[in-house]
Design a protein that fits this description.
The protein is of the alpha/beta class. It has two domains: 102 residues, Aspartate Aminotransferase, domain 1, CATH 3.90.1150.10; 233 residues, 3-Layer(aba) Sandwich (Aspartate Aminotransferase, domain 2), CATH 3.40.640. A hairpin with a 4-residue loop joins strand 11 and strand 12. It contains 14 helices and twelve strands. The model has no long low-confidence stretch (mean pLDDT 98). It is globular. Helices cover 43% and strands 15% of the residues. Bound molecules: ligand TLP. The site of ligand TLP has 15 residues, from helix 3.
């Protein structure tokens, strides 16, 4: 049988042996009553890592983002996003469906709005206008190829939003990739964010779960919103135990994923018919434009999967490849070998 090398996403990572052991031995209680000691420990640790007063363990990044939007806004308000952000593009219209808010999308050149773009998108006083209720950021920005946004740029956006009393939410699904790439602590990136969601279950390899952090008052309301959505879990410490290991043991190794992403990107750029914007390879994501192969993306996915290389579609002829802890140097070389073989056949 062909060995599969799975570059589809860092969501495919399996828990480590230490995680499985910690999960088996986790001290648990009913977390809806606030009585799960492992979850309480995880939430305290997570809040400390992002420099916020409090944090909430949630089942997924999607639920974390949706709870944030529901907590910050009221129906009829407007939410500012880049059209490439997960909260706009990949959450099944949740903002409209669950929150009754509309979105105002701002196209950005490199993943972060300029302060002027935000200022002109914020609605002024007019009887016809909706109120602007929230500004969203995403770091790293997945759809832009995992580019890393500098904290100074995020702060400049937050300063404008705050001038108008509007909160800012950060989708930091890959916050720790951004932190490692920038060489700063995650809390530096989150400094002016009113809320932040980050995933334990992507590069950090926990099996399930995300964190939503903010002020104590925000998290108190978010906890109630989590219950509305059915996300209040009982002996959740079984999952939280893996989350603690994710935060304490799995952050520094993300650098390895970034180094492999660079190696992969350089190798892909040398393959006929493939181009890669090397400047945008800043974390664990590589986007390969296979336009030179003359095939649509769905056929490409199929051709590659038959040879054992799993990737995700990311545009008409674009493939996304994500590095993570279950891929090593040999897997990168194997991916390059398969891509070269396919290139020779198609061109
Ligand atoms: N991203 C997944 C897919 O949903 C696209 C992936 O494979 O990259 N924010 C960002 C920036 C994300 O990339 C994701 C997941 C989420 C939120 C949602 O997290 P989950 O999957 O836990 O709901």
């Amino acid at each position: 049988m062909t060995k599969l090398v799975d570059f589809r996403s860092d969501t495919v990572t399996k828990p480590t042996a230490e995680m499985r052991k910690a999960m088996a031995e986790a001290e648990v209680g009913d977390d809806v009553y606030g009585e799960d000691p492992t979850i309480n420990r995880l939430e305290e640790l997570a809040a400390e890592k992002v420099g916020k007063e409090a944090a909430l363990f949630v089942p997924s990044g999607t639920m974390g983002n949706q709870i944030a939007a529901l907590t910050h806004t009221t129906p009829g308000q407007e939410v500012i996003t880049d059209p490439r952000m997960h909260i706009f593009m990949y959450e099944v219209g949740g903002l409209a469906k669950l929150g009754g808010v509309q979105t105002r999308t701002i196209e950005t050149a490199d993943g972060c709005y300029t302060p002027d773009q935000v200022r002109s998108a914020i609605r002024g006083e007019n009887i016809h206008f909706p109120e602007t209720g929230l500004v969203c950021l995403e770091n790293t920005l997945n759809r832009a190829g995992g580019v890393v946004i500098a904290p100074e740029r995020m702060n400049a956006v937050a300063d404008v939003a705050h001038e108008f009393g509007i909160p800012v939410h950060l989708d930091g699904a890959r916050l720790f990739n951004a932190a490692v790439a920038l060489g700063v602590e995650a809390k530096v990136i989150c400094e002016k964010m009113d809320s932040v969601q980050f995933c334990l279950s992507k590069g950090l390899a926990a099996p399930v779960g995300s964190i939503l952090a903010g002020s104590s008052e925000f998290v108190k309301r978010a906890r109630k919103m989590r219950k509305v959505l059915g996300g209040g879990m009982r002996q959740a410490g079984i999952l939280g135990a893996a989350g603690i290991i994710a935060l304490t043991q799995m952050v520094d190794r993300l650098l390895e994923d970034h180094q492999r992403a660079e190696r992969l990107a350089v190798g892909l750029a040398e393959i006929a018919g493939v181009s890669v914007d090397l400047e945008k390879v800043q974390s664990n994501i590589v986007v390969a434009d296979c336009g030179g192969w003359g095939k649509d993306v769905d056929s490409l996915i199929e051709i590659l999967a038959k040879r054992g290389l799993m990737v995700t579609p990311f545009g008409p002829q674009h493939l996304r490849m994500v590095l993570h802890k279950d891929l090593d140097d040999a897997d990168v070389e194997e991916a390059l070998r398969i891509m070269s073989e396919v290139s020779r056949e198609l061109i």
